[in-house]
Design brief:
296 residues; alpha/beta; Rossmann fold; 2 domains; 10 helices; 42% helix; 14% strand; globular; binds NADPH dihydro-nicotinamide-adenine-dinucleotide phosphate; methenyltetrahydrofolate cyclohydrolase activity; methylenetetrahydrofolate dehydrogenase (NADP+) activity; histidine biosynthesis; THF_DH/CycHdrlase_NAD-bd_dom
Amino acid sequence: PAPPHVIDGKAFAAALRQRIADAVPAFAEAAGRAPGLAVVLVGDDPASAVYVASKGKATRAAGMESFEHRLPADATQAEVEALLAQLNADEAVDGILLQLPLPGHLDEQAAVATIDPDKDVDGLTPVSAGRLALGIPGMVPCTPYGCLLLLQDRLGDLSGKDAVVIGRSILVGKPMAALLLGANCTVTMAHSRTTDLPERVRRADIVVAAVGRPEMVKGEWIKPGAVVIDVGINRLPPAEGAAKGRLVGDVAYDEAAAVAAAITPVPGGVGPMTIACLLRNTLVAAHRRAGLADPE
Ligand code: NDP
């Protein structure tokens, strides 16, 4: 087993997936159908195809219905939006995930914005972002939601904690900061123009790194006893004779682990939480659409 200060996201995600699977029969009983997640893949990007396949597998493993839709790489904007409209109207579909990135000739933001916000399990529509900002119940992007669950599991109430989020992407940094603010942290959002980043990180009880730069956050930046969540997934160049380089996060793990009270490893930390939270969002969307109270 991992040492106690290593946050085992893999085990946490497995337990969450089990709780979701356990809640599916009661939903099916009440609604007369299983929750359904539709995943749309446009084109044949191999990495996206792998993600879509693993999402489908996890969906079925949780006892939910998985609908997989593929459009050719030369699909038009109108064809993509027509498929999304059809899924919006489909009663059996509770969650819609448009796998990004789309081929370059398509307008991603415009396509995402056509998804019914109540089915927006990726939390990427403008309405979902607005609900999150306003503190109205809605769909929260999966990766930051997973980070919040790991933090709450480790720390309990986050009220009054000083948190630094490094990175301000729509997918991770911005919603992460909104979630931490909603949990009553005092939040600093850092990005590429931030000055004195090490000093700002040194004050933080909670550090979330979502940058995409291998081992950028150094151990000496971390306040002793802080909790460090490393969202970054970076592949280093392969060593002499090796086929593939090692995966590392945005945090210099060994250095940071020596000072932090708790830290997520890469891989095996935040990564596994994303699909678990996608299933959770689908289950929640299904309950809300059926007029049922949110599941535990
Ligand atoms: P983006 O590239 O969209 O955003 C990166 C952010 O980092 C930007 O806001 C950028 O600032 C900021 N940044 C860049 N350089 C610096 C710097 N030197 N100092 C401070 N901030 C900096 O990345 P994502 O948010 O999509 O992803 C971040 C990482 O998380 C990636 O490694 C990605 O692979 C990983 N990831 C992992 C997931 C998972 O575990 N399931 C899911 C999603 C992402 P600015 O805005 O000023 O340009």
